[in-house]
Specification:
Number of strands: 16
InterPro entries: MULE_transposase_dom, Znf_FLYWCH
Structural class: alpha+beta
Keywords: Metal-binding, Zinc, Zinc-finger
Largest sheet: 7 strands, mixed
CATH class of the largest domain: Alpha Beta
Distance between the termini: 51 Å
Strand content: 15-25%
GO molecular function: zinc ion binding
Number of domains: 4
Helix content: 40-55%
CATH architecture of the largest domain: 2-Layer Sandwich
Protein name: MULE transposase domain-containing protein
Radius of gyration: 29 Å
Mean pLDDT: 88
CATH topology of the largest domain: Nucleotidyltransferase, domain 5
Length: about 450
């Protein structure tokens, strides 16, 4: 960049004799034709005048962005920290000329990706050595441990747990937890990023970030045991997780009194996948009656627990289900996985017990039926990290950045600020579903909630 008499120029091209041709930064947006030629840092030719007044604030903002880029290259500070340091001394007119924060954060990420300001990527988990500065995080001006558990390079399955003492203290006070895994943002050599969120201040707070090399019950148990070692008094009353047997059994083993609940949205997704697998997606999209009848399967989850099997049997005995052969393979799947097949006058245990996917009590007690807040967090984190399967170093930098934002949010909640307010359409939906459940009549099961559940909460 070139600054001359209060105007800013950017390099256009370079001549063979060493001259540099510059054009006004407003050449495209403001159609300014002013140009200058320099040789050995001296202006040797001026072409045309500017068609706009000089803007000192814009020049200072450009300088600040360049300083942010340099700091991004030379430090591993979180994006917000880089922005805060470089913008703290700027006057308000200059700050007003800066791009928005998300745009600056993307600039920081690009600079670091170009710079490669991280150690070399390990070829195996045995080679993975986390530098000391990446094991720590700055909280309230003090460095404290952030990598709280690492079972070490000599173990067969490497597990890394990132959190803070404040997060764990908060999680200890939470009766209700959410847990979920994701794969898109998982660094190479690991299988999934597993996060645990606590419900506090009427909102869902991400508290623990775990890198796991697999999805077995043994790995989940080791993760939970490590957390209990860090915070012995952890004792959630409920946890909502995906319908994954290994995770369900691990939490039930490590917390014998815990109530494990599945997610209604994931229940719908499981049924929707079967609709797709059996080639009925087009009919589902175009045949209203067929779609409603499929949704009756998910509506069974709102029956009282003691009426689940009876409700399923009555549904199967309706004229539509008896005669509609396109539904038969979907019903077979539902019976095998969620209800249990009859065998010698009794039903075999289903793959997932009824209490995992029954939402009658949860609805009556105003407990969430979905983990949409956790899914939303994963989407935001994917946007933050701006890459699928980033390097381990980029991942750690991103969760540090997330934790810095988390610290601000927690401070706001502690000071009495409200958490994110649920949209009115979802509040109204919850009221309608609760009213349906409260008015339940065992003799009118199929006038019940199937047509009153919002589209998004199912599986389309």
């Amino acid at each position: 960049m070139l600054v001359l008499e209060g105007y800013l120029f950017e390099k256009d091209k370079m001549a063979d004799d060493g001259r540099i041709f510059w054009k006004c930064v407003e050449a495209k947006k403001g159609k300014c034709s002013a140009r200058r030629h320099t040789l050995n840092d001296a202006v040797v030719k001026s072409l045309l005048d500017h068609n706009h007044v000089p803007d000192i604030a814009a020049i200072e903002a450009r300088k600040a962005i360049n300083s942010i880029k340099e700091r991004a290259k030379t430090t591993r500070d979180a994006g917000y920290a880089v922005i805060a340091v470089e913008s703290s001394q700027l006057l308000e007119p200059v700050q007003a000329k800066l791009p928005n924060v998300e745009c600056i954060k993307r600039t920081i990420r690009r600079q670091r990706q170009l710079q490669g300001n991280y150690p070399a990527n390990p070829n195996s988990l045995r080679e993975l050595n986390i530098p000391d500065d990446m094991r720590l995080i700055c909280v309230n001006g003090q460095q404290e441990p952030f990598l709280l558990f690492d079972n070490g390079p000599d173990t067969e399955h490497r597990i890394l747990i990132f959190s803070t003492q404040r997060n764990l203290e908060l999680l200890e006070r939470c009766e209700h937890w959410y847990a979920d895994g994701t794969f898109k943002t998982t660094p190479p050599l690991f299988t999934q990023v597993y996060t645990i969120h606590g419900v506090r201040f009427n909102t869902c707070i991400p508290s623990v970030f775990v890198l796991l090399p697999g999805k077995s019950k043994v790995l989940y148990q080791e993760m939970i045991q490590a957390l209990k070692g860090l915070r012995p008094n952890l004792k959630p009353s409920t946890i909502m997780i995906d319908f994954e047997r290994a995770a369900i059994e691990a939490f039930q083993t490590e917390f014998p009194e815990i109530l494990v609940r599945g997610c209604f949205f994931h229940l719908g997704q499981c049924i929707w996948r079967k609709v797709q697998e059996h080639g009925k997606a087009v009919r589902y999209a175009n045949d209203v009656e067929f779609a409603v009848q499929v949704k009756m399967l998910t509506a069974i989850s709102f029956l009282p627990l003691h009426d689940v099997v009876l409700g399923f049997e009555e549904l199967m005995d309706t004229e539509y289900y008896r005669n509609e052969i396109d539904l038969h393979p979907i019903c077979d799947y539902f019976e095998d996985v969620w209800i249990g097949r009859p065998h010698r006058n009794i039903r075999r245990p289903p793959l997932f017990q009824y209490n995992l996917w029954n939402f009658y009590d949860a609805t009556n007690n105003d407990l969430p039926r979905t983990n949409n807040s956790v899914e939303g967090w994963h989407r935001r984190f994917t946007e933050l990290i701006s890459a699928q399967h980033p390097s381990i170093w980029r991942f750690i930098a991103a969760i540090k950045e997330e934790q810095h934002m988390n610290e601000i949010a927690i401070s706001h909640y502690i000071q009495g600020r409200d958490g994110p307010r649920q949209k009115k359409k979802y509040r109204d939906l919850n009221i309608r579903i609760k009213n349906c459940v409260a008015r339940y009549d065992a003799n009118e099961k199929f006038l019940y909630p199937s047509k009153k559940i919002e589209k998004k909460e199912k599986f389309v």
